[in-house]
C-alpha cells in the first residue's frame, strides 16, 4: 500500500498539472516537455542528465530535418518509383529506442530500400506530422515502387520483419 501511494504521488503531477504548459506543445511531445520541465524532473527516479535532444542519425538512416526536405524526399520516392521506409521516431520514446537498431539492420539487409528517419519533435516538421496524422511513435511507412503499401505503428519486431521480407525481399 505504501508503494502504491508513493507511485500515485509521484505520477499525480504528470496527470493533473498540465494546464500551465505552453499551448504549442503537441500531444506527442507532452512527455518530453514534462521531462524537460525542472519542476517535474525532481519526481523522476532515473538518471537526470540524459539528453532529450535529437540523436544523430544511425548508420543506414537518412535524417529528415525540415518540411521542405520531407516533401522533396516524398516526391522523389513517388516520382522515381523507389522502395523506401519513412521512420517516424522520438528520442524520448522507449519503443523507438528498442526498434531503432532493428530498423537500422534491416536497412543494411535491403540496400535497395532507403530508410528516412524523421524526429517528430522537430519544430520544422510539425505541419507534415499533422497532415499525415502521425500520433504515435514509432510509426513506419513502407513504400514499394513509389506507392505506400503498408504502415506499422509500434515496436512489433515480428511484423516489421514480416513486412520488410514481404515487400523488399531480394529476387
Give the topology, please.
Elements: H1 2-16, H2 30-36, H3 38-41, E1 61-64, H4 67-79, E2 83-89, H5 94-109, E3 113-119, H6 126-132, E4 139-144, E5 147-153, H7 157-168
Helix pairs in contact: 5-7
In a few lines, what is going on in this structure?
With 171 residues, the protein is of the alpha/beta class.
DSSP summary, beta strand count = 5
Going across the major beta sheet, what is the strand order?
A: 1-3-2-4-5
Can you identify the CATH superfamily of the domain at 61-168?
Answer: Glutaredoxin
Strand content: 15-25%
Sketch the topology as an H/E string, one letter per element: HHHEHEHEHEEH
Largest sheet entry: 5 strands, mixed
Can you tag this structure with a few keywords?
5 strands; globular; five-stranded mixed sheet; 7 helices; disulfide bond; disordered N terminus; alpha/beta; 171 residues; Glutaredoxin
Describe the protein in words:
The protein has helices spanning about 1-15, 30-35, 40, 65-80, 95-110, 125-130, 155-170; strands at about 60-65, 85-90, 115-120, 140-145, 145-155. By secondary structure, it is an alpha/beta fold. Strands 1-3-2-4-5 form a 5-stranded mixed beta sheet, sandwiched between helices. Strand 2 (about 85-90), helix 5 and strand 3 form a beta-alpha-beta unit. Helix 5 runs parallel beside helix 7 (about 155-170). It is globular and about 35 Å long.
